Amino acid sequence: MAAENGLDNEVEDIKQAEGSASCEGQDKEDAGIKDGDNAENVLEKEQEDGSSEAEDASESEESSPKAGISKKEKRFGRKKDKNIEKLEAKLAELEDKRVRQLAEFENFRKRSEKEKSQMFETGAKTVVEKILPVIDNFERGLAGVPENEKDAPFVQGVELVYKQLVTALGGLGVKPIEAVGQEFDPALHNAVMAVDDDTLESGTVAEEMQKGYMYKESVVRHSMVKVVN
């Protein structure tokens, strides 16, 4: 009876040992450690696994759509900046051209107005020159009328026409040049004779032989005068 109990105890111990070995093998399988692997091999494997995971993460980041869009946006941004610079340069060139054309047009307008004014003045002076002899004849005719006939209707009618003509010319800017008693001015007077006159200073206009006229600021006809010596 004692021998049977001892045998049963040995069998129980063997079963427990086999169960422990089985559990240990299962634990090694779960941890990925095979028989014969030492601690160094396990460490190298873990490092390789970590490096592989880092490389996979890097490749995943580089190949991600977000990274590709960022690079494309940078290239597009640089291209956009260059296009903006070109457009700004073109705009500045066009603005400079516009300002130059406006300045040229303004100069042309002023030059045209000046030429137009000069042409009009030249034409007006030509017309006035042709009318002045008519005024001279009116003045000669009225000056030769006897004193007793100045009240005659015909003489008064001629005098009215003469005054109307002088008034019309005055409205256009035509005015006679003052001569008698004025200092001789070669720009206004044409001296045709020198006379002695004690009542006037030397160089003074003593008598007007033909009346001179001005159109605005320019001389149409110089006065023909006698000047004191």
Explain this structure to me?
The protein has helices spanning 2-31, 39-62, 65-143, 153-171; strands at 174-176, 189-195, 205-210, 213-215, 218-221, 223-228. With 229 residues, the protein is of the alpha+beta class. The chain has a 3-stranded antiparallel sheet. The longest helix has 79 residues, at 65-143.
Largest sheet strand order: 1-4-5
Largest sheet: 3 strands, antiparallel
Number of alpha- plus pi-helical segments? 4
Identify the overall geometry.
rod-shaped
Helix content: 55-70%
Overall pLDDT score: 77
Q: Structural class, from helix and strand content?
A: alpha+beta
Low-confidence stretches: 1-5, 27-39, 59-68
C-alpha termini separation:
189 Å
* Beta strand count: 6
Summarize the helix and strand pattern as letters: HHHHEEEEEE
Which value, in Å, is the CA radius of gyration?
Answer: 63 Å
Beta-strand portion reads 5-15%
Topology overview:
Elements: H1 2-31, H2 39-62, H3 65-143, H4 153-171, E1 174-176, E2 189-195, E3 205-210, E4 213-215, E5 218-221, E6 223-228
Parallel strand pairs: 2-6
Antiparallel strand pairs: 1-4, 3-6, 4-5
